[in-house]
Design brief:
By secondary structure, this protein is of the alpha+beta class. Among the domains are: 80-178, Sandwich (Immunoglobulin-like); 181-255, no CATH class. The protein is 19% helix and 27% strand. It is built from six helices and 17 strands. The chain has helices at residues 32-36, 39-44, 51-54, 57-73, 258-277, 301-310, and strands spanning 80-89, 99-102, 108-118, 121-125, 133-136, 141-144, 170-178, 182-188, 190-191, 197-199, 214-217, 220-221, 227-230, 235-238, 246-252, 284-287, 290-293. A four-stranded antiparallel β-sheet has the order 1-7-3-4, with no helix packed on it. A hairpin with a 5-residue loop joins β9 and β10 (197-199). α4 (57-73) packs across α5. The protein is globular, with a radius of gyration of 24 Å.
Length: 321
């Protein structure tokens, strides 16, 4: 069965490189083990031995909670590499000025490429160390002096720089890598029993799917056709018995801010509690002298706590400055 991704959509190929546009997707913000080691999981009676841990239900609830956080904050927090468009882009070719471009996700680690599109033509901006780029990584924006040349790339007539002179005909394409993940190298993977599965230690799981993953056996890089990957649990499954110690280079998202992880735990526990104790969504339940009030909307203390945690991370920034 093919794994489904929350928030995934089919994108077109009308990008500067002709490849499919990369957009942010929903990934879990905690692992199953992060959750079962929390006070909330203890209160619900969920451990590594309960069915929800193994049948996929717990992972689904964690992903739902993570997706809710993304929608509420209008941004993503795990490490991903995406393409982002800004419309109504104009320049001053005869009086160049710095343009500040605010990205939807922060902090970012690298601007991989910048293209200015006019109709079907593209001009690439130099983002090298000696290029026209000023980085403000933690704040999530960069500054450029977009001096257009007199010739574009691809088939067709060159793009005259003058046509973007204070006229918002351009589209700015930015490919960048963002997120709070941490790249790790030469990490030892431990064999699970006598199986062909090898897993990273607790605290280094929750791998970033869009980032580079290298797997080594006895120091030799293994072809991707020799194993499958479980990114959510930081696990490799070989198709045949490997030889020697297994190590890997990967990016882990377990270095996310504590507020994001706590919000995810609270939401996951709340959804599981509602599903098991109040599946009909009743506001209250009474039986003779015993009464339970579940609360809803603004009366819900869980959502109020989550909103407090996520408040500083909500994206309210403009696109251009």
């Amino acid at each position: 069965m093919t794994d489904l991704k929350s928030g995934w959509i089919q994108t077109g190929t009308n990008t500067p490189t002709g490849a499919a546009m990369k957009i942010a997707v929903d990934n879990p913000y905690i692992t199953r083990d992060d959750f079962i080691n929390s006070f909330e999981a203890t209160g619900l009676g969920i451990t590594s031995q309960t069915p929800q841990y193994w049948n996929g239900e717990l992972q689904n609830k964690i992903l739902q909670a993570s997706s809710w956080i993304n929608r509420y904050c209008a941004r993503w927090f795990d490490t991903q590499t995406i393409d982002e468009q800004k419309t109504k882009f104009s320049v001053r070719p005869y009086n160049p000025q710095l343009v500040t471009v605010v990205l939807a996700n922060r902090p970012y680690t690298k601007i991989n490429s910048i293209w200015i599109q006019v109709l079907k033509w593209f001009i690439q901006v130099d983002v090298s160390a000696t290029g026209y780029l000023q980085d403000f990584y933690d704040k999530g924006y960069y500054k450029i002096v977009p001096m257009l040349s007199s010739a574009g790339t691809g088939v067709g007539a060159p793009i005259p720089a003058a046509i973007l002179d204070r006229i918002p005909l351009g589209v700015l394409w930015t490919n960048y890598t963002f997120g709070y993940g941490t790249p790790l190298t030469a990490q030892t993977l431990t064999q699970i029993g006598t199986t062909l599965e090898y897993q990273a230690p607790v605290g280094n799981r929750l791998w970033a799917p869009s980032q580079t993953l290298n797997v080594y056996a006895a120091g030799v890089l293994q072809a991707t056709t020799l194993y499958t990957v479980d990114y959510v649990n930081g696990k490799i499954t070989f198709l045949s018995t490997p030889t020697g110690a297994i190590t890997a280079d990967f990016t882990t998202n377990e270095s996310l801010p504590s507020e994001i992880k706590e919000a995810c735990i609270l939401l996951t526990a709340y959804m599981i509690g509602q599903a098991t104790q109040n599946p009909l969504g009743a506001a209250s339940l009474g039986m003779q002298t015993f009464n339970v009030s579940f609360g809803s909307g603004k009366e819900n203390s869980v959502y109020e706590r989550v909103k407090q945690l996520l408040g500083p991370y909500s994206n309210q920034l403009p696109g251009f400055v």
